[in-house]
Amino acid sequence: MAKNFKHIPVLAKEVPDILVRDPSGIYVDGTFGRGGHSRLILEKLSPKGKLYAFDRDEAAVKAAEEISDPRFRIIYAPFAEMKEKLIELGITSVNGILLDIGVSSPQIDDAERGFSFRFDGPLDMRMDTSTGMTAAEWINRAAAEEITSVLKLYGEEKFSSRIAAAICERRTKEPFTTTKALADLIASVVPRNKKDRDQHPATRSFQGIRIFINDELGQLRQALNAAGSLLQPEGILEVISFHSLEDRIVKHFFDMCANPDKGIDPRLPLRAEQLPQPLFSKGKKVVPTKEELEINPRARSSILRFASRTGTPWKGLELT
Ligand SMILES: C[S@@+](CC[C@H](N)C(=O)[O-])C[C@H]1O[C@@H](n2cnc3c(N)ncnc32)[C@H](O)[C@@H]1O
């Protein structure tokens, strides 16, 4: 039976207003979730418009079956593959793309998915449970150095090596199978955050493991490039991110695309047409209003960045 979890879309007014410039155009929602944004986008489209939505989570894809609208189609695939999947359907260019990245409330709130240290469940953390390694499989096998670097890089956890050492010691006695066992172990070796005493000591580690298990940053980098090559001139790319690691990649991407001549010595004898031309023109970042945060406190750290594609032919960008 489908579990009924609530998900309120963030920036519900701003996202469709910015995205849909041509109501008869073709749009992509790379992160269907429970379809909060997809439904709002569909409301803006004319009968000729189309919306292709993606999700790598089977439960999200199942939830999408509730939308019976000839203008809508759900695709069960990671958004990094959006270009190939759309080409298979004969779509080579689109008018707008939305990525509302990260995990959804239904994923976090379902203990069985193993994303949360607040509820006990199997230590899984995969968005797509049909493929890849679970968090338990990884944590029971990875070398201490690898665990340290995942917690440090993706969780920005300053006690990463202490936690990794404790994990390696404990798993020799009993392998990890549950979220609670891991959360309790981390809480036993990490002091509480002095600035935010309500934050669970495992918050950062769980974030780091989840990002690693789902290759979230790699997916984002690939999707940004795919979006650049799919969008037609004046097409909009919107990305909503929830933490600084993702936002840094998005900001850097849009900066590189908007100012590709940055770093070129202005004294060089180059004509204007010899300089690299902008690939996107940036819009101003958008954050939730106070009123939105009162209704939906989970929107707290979300940032929407968007930009409009220029007519310059797309060249793949190397993103770090
Ligand atoms: C924050 S939620 C999106 C919520 C959605 N905008 C709504 O209003 O219901 C993120 C969703 O994106 C999906 N997701 C995250 N990374 C993905 C990826 N690389 N490819 C496809 N789906 C992804 C997750 O499974 C989750 O369902």
Automatic annotation (TrEMBL):
It comes from the Bacteria. It is found in: Cytoplasm. One of its GO terms (biological process) is rRNA base methylation. GO terms for molecular function: rRNA (cytosine-N4-)-methyltransferase activity. GO terms for cellular component: cytoplasm. It catalyses: cytidine(1402) in 16S rRNA + S-adenosyl-L-methionine = N(4)-methylcytidine(1402) in 16S rRNA + S-adenosyl-L-homocysteine + H(+). It is an enzyme of class 2 (transferase). Its main location: cytoplasm. S-adenosyl-L-methionine binds at G35, G36, H37, D55, F79, D100, Q107. InterPro entries: RsmH, SAM-dep_MeTrfase_MraW_recog, SAM-dependent_MTases_sf. Gene3D superfamilies: Putative methyltransferase TM0872, insert domain (1.10.150.170), Vaccinia Virus protein VP39 (3.40.50.150). Keywords: Cytoplasm, Methyltransferase, rRNA processing, S-adenosyl-L-methionine, Transferase. Its EC number is 2.1.1.199. HAMAP family: 16SrRNA_methyltr_H. Belongs to the methyltransferase superfamily. RsmH family. Specifically methylates the N4 position of cytidine in position 1402 (C1402) of 16S rRNA. PANTHER family: 12S RRNA N4-METHYLCYTIDINE METHYLTRANSFERASE, S-ADENOSYL-METHYLTRANSFERASE MRAW. This is Ribosomal RNA small subunit methyltransferase H. It comes from Turicimonas muris. The lineage of its organism: Bacteria, Pseudomonadati, Pseudomonadota, Betaproteobacteria, Burkholderiales.
